[in-house]
Amino acid sequence: MTEEQSNIAPAPPQPLAKKNGEILLWAVAGTVIIFLTIIRTLPWFPRVIPVSADDSWDLALNFFLQKGYLAGKDYIFTFGPLGFLYNKTYFPATFNLKLIFQALLTALTVLVLLLQAKKLIKRPALILLWLFSLITLYSFFSDVFFLAFPVLAVNQYFLIDQGKASSRPSFATFLLVALMAFSTLVKFTFFVANAWVLIFITIDQIFVKKTLPSLLILFGVVSLAVWLLSGQPLLDLPAYIASSLAVASGHSEAMSLSESGWQLPIGATIFATTILLLTLSILSYKRIGKAALGAVLAESGLFF
After folding, report:
1. Helix 214-229 vs helix 171-183: angle between axes, to the nearest 10 degrees?
2. What is the mean pLDDT of residues 284-295?
3. Is the CB of residue 154 less than 8 Å from the CB of residue 303?
4. What is d(CA 183, CA 277) in angstroms, rounded to the nearest whole number?
5. Closest CA to 196 of 78, 294, 72
6. Nearest 5 degrees, angle CA 63-CA 66-CA 72?
7. Is residue 65 domain-resident?
8. 15 located within any domain
9. Which residues is 71 bridged to in the sheet?
10. Under 8 Å between Cβ of 89 and 62
């Protein structure tokens, strides 16, 4: 130890009462934020029967669950056995279950946002302002909501967990991967997005951190468990994947680029995606150097 190092006094320990007070403050603030977000998000004015003809598929997803139909066998669609959670259409047999799961998913997502904000934003006042701003923009369940899980997982694993002394993923990362696994049975395209992110996370765990692919294992276990708990036979899972791939590819080919009105939203999406990827690239490189390549590749697939 040099003379300069010996002259540096250690930081005084934080008083226990002050630390407990901060924990209590965060617990109360977090509870209020989660509660307000649930109030803002849940379908207090759902679409009721009869709905427009274009919403018949949404009613069918609820009907399939009520009757115990098998995905990929009794019905061929890109939505899985949990597809009834995707929208806000009222169906008497499933609506209460829909509300329970949507409230739980909302609460867990906001909890992760709160944990990430504490790591990335230093000032509590700015954190609360940021979270309340998000609440005002919180839209109802759709692709954007479920695709937030892999986006948050990229941020958590590559940007926040990299600063930990231990190579073990954080609680927030495990939670996000479990949510990703759950969402794969809502819609097949979520499985594709989640799988893309997990590829780069698994590569990092195996070849960079030299550890077991614990997150990939968790994803597989939760996905299979939810599939079985939703009343789907394990042997029917390959049929669901194969049929969903066929339907998804056919739907993409059928989308017309000549339809009017698509240019502005698609152009805005491309612009926003470019800004997000550039921002992530710069932030990742500043925080984790060359390891930023994995984070950028993992994020890029979500916008495909």
Report:
1. 40
2. 73
3. no
4. 23
5. 294
6. 70
7. yes
8. no
9. 75
10. yes
The model's pTM: 0.80
Cβ pair 240, 72 in contact under 8 A: yes
Which residue, chain included where needed, has tokens 């379908």?
Answer: 43
Secondary structure in 3-state letters for 120-131: HCCCHHHHHHHH
The pLDDT score that the predictor gives to residue 104 is 94
Quote the number of domains for the chain.
1
Helix (H) or strand (E) holding 237: helix 237-254
Tell me which residue of 229, 119, 140, 244 sits closest to 190, measured CA to CA.
244
Question: How far is Cα 270 from Cα 182, in angstroms, rounded to an integer?
Answer: 28
pLDDT value, residue 137: 65
Contact by Cβ (8 Å): 51, 89: yes
Distance CA 89, CA 65 (A): 14
- Residue 37: name the closest of 146, 111, 121 by CA: 111
| Domain of 214, in residue numbers | 21-249+272-303
Nearest in space to 177 (alpha carbons), one of 226, 230, 209, 218? 218
| Residue-wise pLDDT tens digits, 105-125 | 999 998 998 888 888 777 777
Q: What is the pLDDT of residue 3?
A: 47
Is 88 within 8 Å of 43 (Cβ atoms)? yes
50-82 pLDDT tens trace? 666 667 888 899 999 999 999 999 999 889 999
- Count Cβ atoms below 10 Å from residue 126 Cβ, excluding itself: 11
Return the percentage of the chain with pLDDT > 90, whole number. 36
Assigned domain for 264 exists: no
Q: Indicate the range of 17-21, 30-34, 127-131, 216-220 predicted with least confidence.
A: 17-21
Query: Which residues are registered as beta bridge partners of 75?
Result: 71
